[in-house]
Design goal:
With 327 residues, the protein is mainly alpha-helical. It has helices at 2-19, 26-32, 39-55, 65-85, 89-112, 118-141, 147-171, 178-181, 195-217, 231-238, 241-270, 282-326; strands spanning 189-191, 275-277. The chain has one domain. The termini are far apart. It comes from Botryosphaeria parva (strain UCR-NP2) (Grapevine canker fungus).
């Protein structure tokens, strides 16, 4: 009986072993198996992380001294234009001088105390262009600047402004909303003025400053308003040697400003490093840059054609007046 008991025990042990699932005990089986990652969950996590990163884009501290000076120039621009139209030449000249000085000071402060911001690199040239456009337009309306030159200056700035609108929208991180578009603490593109553009800006400031200074000094010939003739024509009409010399200098400066304006306008359409689009997708940045340069090139070419047409029309009108007066 004792041996029979051992026999049955052995048989029951064998049956238990046979019924046991392959791979050993449950604990051993779990230790031998490698857990499989849940790929859909990982992909969703990465996508969610990208969306959160775009929503929490870096915000700059834009309210510093250089940017405040820059924004003050934006406010001063329409005031200068209003003063010119209302023949307040001394006040217009003083406020224009303030804008020119702050344009130099804010850049120096930003570099000296490491206060450069992306919004400053965008708003600073925007303030300059707005000041130039309004001042040139008002001076041309008063007859103090030739029409074709005013078209070139205004048209170049308008072409750059149109391209800036595209650059801002194309480079703005998603989601592209109206509020985020005008939130300049969200940097998306950085503007680098070309060398010829800086030289052209200096010449434009010199020409406008001289044009504003003339009616302030020449009280005897134009005590109340800028005359309908250009500055150079008015100076030449005075007949003195100094007036003729100054008239020649003003005319030469106008020609130089016109030439450098054309050059600087097309430089933004040619040079690839004039605008830096922020982001990590190099292929997309390259495509956006090419489109922006094409916008500048096409729009400014139309501006140049319009300026040439205006000049030719004025030349024909002047010849007709001469023939009419000759008769």
């Amino acid at each position: 009986m004792r041996g029979e008991g051992r026999l049955f025990a052995t048989s029951r042990g064998r049956r238990a072993a046979d019924d046991r699932p392959p791979g050993g005990p449950p604990g051993d089986r779990n230790r031998n198996q490698t857990p499989q990652p849940k790929k859909p969950l990982l992909e969703k996590t990465k996508e969610l992380r990208k969306q959160l990163k775009s929503l929490t884009a870096t915000h700059e501290k834009i309210w510093n001294v250089p940017n405040v000076l820059t924004f003050s120039r934006l406010v001063a621009a329409p005031v200068v234009g209003s003063l010119i139209l209302h023949d307040q030449h001394a006040w217009a000249l003083g406020l224009f001088a303030y804008a020119g000085i702050t344009d130099l000071v804010d850049g120096w402060i930003a570099r000296r105390w490491q206060l450069q911001t992306v919004v400053g690199s965008v708003v600073d040239p925007m303030a300059d262009k707005l000041l130039m456009a309004i001042t040139v337009g008002c001076l041309a309306a008063k007859g103090a600047l030739p029409g074709p030159l005013a078209i070139l200056i205004f048209g170049r700035d308008a072409s750059l402004a149109i391209a800036a609108i595209y650059y801002r929208y194309a480079s703005l991180p998603s989601p592209k909303t109206f509020g985020r578009y005008w939130d300049f603490s969200l940097p998306s593109a950085e503007v680098h003025p070309t060398t010829v553009s800086k030289f052209n800006t200096f010449l434009q400031l010199a020409l406008i400053g001289l044009t504003l200074l003339f009616p302030v000094l020449a009280h005897s010939s134009a005590p109340d308003a800028i005359t309908d003739a250009t500055v150079s024509d008015t100076l030449a009409a005075e007949g003195t040697t100094d007036a003729r010399t100054l008239s020649t200098a003003v005319t030469a400066l106008q020609v130089l400003v016109g030439a450098t304006t054309v050059w600087s306008g097309f430089s933004y359409a040619i040079l690839k490093d004039a605008v830096t689009i922020l982001g990590s997708d190099e292929a997309l940045k390259k495509k956006q840059g090419a489109r922006g340069r094409a916008i500048i090139g096409v729009s400014f070419a139309l501006v140049c054609a319009g300026a040439v047409g205006w000049a030719m029309r004025g030349q024909r009108r002047e010849e007709a007046d001469q023939r009419r007066s000759g008769k």
